[in-house]
Automatic annotation (TrEMBL), chains A, B:
A molecular function (GO) term: DNA binding
Annotated CDD domains: HTH_LacI, PBP1_LacI_sugar_binding-like
Pfam families: LacI (PF00356), Peripla_BP_3 (PF13377)
InterPro entries: HTH_LacI, LacI/GalR-like_sensor, Lambda_DNA-bd_dom_sf, Peripla_BP_I
Keywords: DNA-binding, Transcription, Transcription regulation
Domain spans labelled HTH lacI-type: 1-53
Record protein name field: LacI family DNA-binding transcriptional regulator
Length: 335, 335
DNA sequence: CTGAAAGCGCTTACAG
DNA sequence: CTGAAAGCGCTTACAG
């Protein structure tokens, strides 16, 4: 900038005015400065600008996995809102590891992002208290924060799961297996609670062996599914599954499509919609969330804070939709 | 930092040493500084650090769409390599718009990212010349840069497409439709060239109406597919499709699965693998690329430059794999 | 082992 | 319409 000023024969401030499109520069001076800028290949250094202004026009997003088909539209939606507000998006994957979440979130704060959207992997976010006090706007999405209060966008996990399981019950199922995500993950617990409530409201008992929370690793899911289908532990085999998420559903579809399982069709309702679900045979009935909508809502809450809103933290709840396609309407087949 | 120094009764430089874990601080002093840091809730301001050091430990990634299932694993792979090198990832979607690509890339340069990975939407990257001259390492992936030389990672688009079409020919097809991405996109052109070469090598003529490059919009693809299937323009209907990418393949699967099309099965080979392709009926034969591998390779080339390599720009070529699953092995059905 | 001074490249507040 | 000085929060180069 100094070089530009020297070359154009003007002061630093005048260059700054031209670069930022401020008023109060004669058109002649402006032309000289522009010329100097292009011939020197000058580009404003935003780091210096940030240091002086205190605002970075960038926001951070921490989620589980950028490549997960549930999270990637969420991320894209956050990006679009950020773009509309002139901000860039820095994002990172926590890989469901609380330490990595913290490391990422704090690294983003050290870069002085204006705000943070977090899909938490951790259940204790007190580490963010100094950052929030220092003015970093923070919004949680998909799962609530732990031990701090903050804006939050959530799907109706409990109600969605309850409705999905009630749908299976309405189609005659009495022995329904639940394969979900790890306990400790809020969505997993809410969906499990929805399952138990639906069973309870229908007066159906739940055998311990029908409930299998755990990792979404396909080997784990296959093992638990096989156990429930073959009626281990002396209980009767399940005639239907309710799947706690996207990743689990895909594995269950594979399990149920295996040739040796085809003679006894098993019903399936999955939480989360996914591409091509309608083209599988049978097409998969799901409780759909709208990940882009979750991302958009969270980003809008964030920019509301950045625009100065300082009322109490609010929680936004987004409904789910049961989409009946076939797999959830299969009647119970006994062996 | 000044406050911390005052509180601990030490100089600024000593605080800097503690914050950066440099040697040469007595353990007693270090403890006092650490205490001051935690009680003040101090966190180093990386913007200031960047300004002084000239390096940001962040890299930028510009691609078409963060939510596209082809690009999201690529993005995640870049993130992992960046993380291994202690860098954060800032990314943005160009939405296949050259202006938006330029705007994003230059915004990232203004933030002084150390390097840039770009999936180009534009065919002229001379706008990056001043940035590259100023030291921003730049690597292109999936498509080559326009009018500048730079490191590049590419799939074997031509050879993959040629092999995919040859596979259909080997299964008896003589009238094969090609539905691809827009002309001007390098991958689209290479794959079309592969199609033409395979047809040519087999001595098969190509009717104009069998070649339909264009947007991946599903309405466009449906219309072109219907035209080829119904044999408009006085030509015979095609008995097989070669699809130029992921998005097109998914639409074609839907077209071919329609009840009114089922009596005359049409073969399909798609470029790009996708989740659940093996569970569709028929399972979809694809020419698979490895997007995570592309991302990883590009990021590794980038960090190689950042570590000081200044040899000639290099091009890395990654092979594709033909995965025969069923849809590509359907024999020709005449009406 | 420790610290004072200068400077990274901008913007702010002010004066002319 | 224009510019000189101070300062944002760090690190570098140097001295003790």
């Amino acid at each position: 900038m100094k070089d530009v000023a020297a070359r154009a024969g003007v002061g630093l401030k005048t260059v700054s005015r031209v670069v930022n499109g401020e008023a109060g520069v004669s058109s002649d001076t402006e032309r000289r400065v522009q010329e100097a800028i292009t011939s020197l290949g000058f580009r404003r250094n935003d780091s210096a600008r940030v240091l002086r202004k205190g605002t970075t026009a960038s926001i951070g997003l921490v989620l589980e996995d950028l490549a997960d088909p549930f999270y990637s539209p969420l991320s894209r939606a956050v990006e679009e809102v950020a773009r509309a507000h002139g901000a860039l998006l820095i994002n990172g994957s926590s890989a469901e590891d609380p330490e990595r979440e913290q490391e990422l979130a704090l690294a983003l704060c050290a870069r002085r992002v204006d705000g943070l959207v977090i899909v938490p992997a951790s259940d204790d976010h007190r580490y963010l208290e100094p950052e929030i006090a220092a003015g970093v706007a923070t919004v949680f999405v998909d799962r609530p924060p732990g031990r701090i209060a903050a804006d939050l966008v959530l799907s109706e996990n409990f109600e969605g799961a309850r409705a999905g399981v009630a749908h299976l019950i309405a189609h005659g199922h009495r022995r329904i297996g639940f394969i979900g995500d790890r306990p400790g993950i809020h969505t997993a617990e809410e969906r499990l609670r929805g399952y138990r409530t639906a069973m309870d409201q229908a007066g159906l008992p739940v055998a311990d062996s029908w409930v299998a929370p755990g990792s979404t690793d396909s080997e784990r899911v296959r093992a638990d599914a096989a156990r429930m289908l073959d009626g281990a532990d002396g209980t009767e085999p399940v005639t239907a599954f309710f799947s706690g998420n996207n990743r689990v559903t895909v594995t269950l579809v594979r399990v149920l499509a295996a040739p040796e399982r085809r003679d006894r069709p098993v019903a399936l309702v999955g939480f989360d919609d996914f591409e091509l679900a309608d083209l599988l045979s049978p097409p998969v009935t799901v409780v759909a969330q709208d990940p882009a909508d979750l991302g958009r809502s969270a980003a809008e809450l964030l920019f509301r804070r950045l625009d100065g809103a300082d009322d109490e933290p609010r929680t936004v709840s987004r409904p789910t939709t049961l989409i009946a396609r076939g797999s959830g309407e299969i009647p119970p087949h006994e062996r």
